[in-house]
Design a protein that fits this description.
CATH class: Alpha Beta
Structural class: alpha/beta
CATH architecture: 3-Layer(aba) Sandwich
Largest sheet: 7 strands, mixed
Strand order of the largest sheet: 3-2-1-4-5-7-6
GO molecular function: S-adenosylmethionine-dependent methyltransferase activity
Low-confidence stretches: none
CATH superfamily: Vaccinia Virus protein VP39
Order of helices and strands: HEHEHEEHEHHEE
InterPro entries: Methyltransf_11 (IPR013216), SAM-dependent_MTases_sf (IPR029063)
Mean pLDDT: 86
Strand content: 15-25%
Protein name: Methyltransferase type 11 domain-containing protein
Number of domains: 1
Pfam families: Methyltransf_11
Keywords: Methyltransferase, S-adenosyl-L-methionine, Transferase
Number of helices: 6
CATH topology: Rossmann fold
Number of strands: 7
């Protein structure tokens, strides 16, 4: 496993979809919140796109490593998204990569919704458990993983992890439908799902 690489060479299962979702950031966006920022890979990408970024992680070591790599334009905080005081009017973009499964599902989604400005965008890459009815997805994930590893080595981040995730894919989909009406949920290979949502202007 590789742990020390320049940003453009880093790859793992979450980064594969993180980079895809970053293309959905509106050109009009000016502010961003990165929840569970780890070493700051996505936060640095958001800054390159011209956004003022607040990046949170509860792991002090991860924030220290992030600050050591680049901090211009990024407000790194050792903080819990559920309790941290943040922008009163919300952020234009809220990102959450491989972090939602560290939170209570309903409370976490509601908090992300609250922190999003009206008309703003939520971008989530998440992990969840498959049920026995979804074993075919596990076969797809294994095949995709083997193919991906033939093309490039995986970057292993040193931030804390939780495995297995406490939520099932069905639970995530149901909660997102309730809490973020109109959100787009997609089950992905590589043991991931993505969730995107634009907050209505009247919320």
């Amino acid at each position: 496993m590789l742990t020390d690489l320049p940003d453009h060479e880093r790859w793992n299962h979450s980064i594969a979809y993180q980079r895809e979702l970053s293309e959905l950031i509106p050109e009009t966006a000016r502010t961003a919140l990165d929840v569970g920022c780890g070493e700051g890979l996505l936060a640095r990408e958001l800054v390159k796109r011209g956004l003022a970024v607040t990046a949170l992680d509860t792991d002090a070591a991860s924030i220290e490593r992030a600050r050591a790599q680049l901090s211009d334009g990024i407000d790194y905080r050792i903080a819990d998204v559920m309790t941290e005081h943040l922008r009163e009017h919300g952020f234009d973009v809220v990102t959450c990569v491989a972090t939602l499964h560290h939170l209570d599902l309903d409370s976490g989604l509601r908090r992300l919704s609250e922190l999003t400005a009206p008309g703003g965008t939520v971008l989530i890459v998440g992990l969840a458990q498959a049920t026995w009815r979804e074993l075919h997805w596990e076969a797809v994930a294994i095949a995709a993983d083997v193919a991906a590893r033939r093309r490039r080595q995986q970057w292993e981040h040193p931030s804390p992890t939780i495995w297995p995730p406490p939520h099932t894919y069905a639970q995530v989909r149901e909660a997102a439908t309730r809490i973020m009406p109109g959100s787009v949920y997609r089950r992905r290979a590589l043991w991931r799902y993505t969730l995107t949502w634009t907050k209505p202007l009247d919320r």
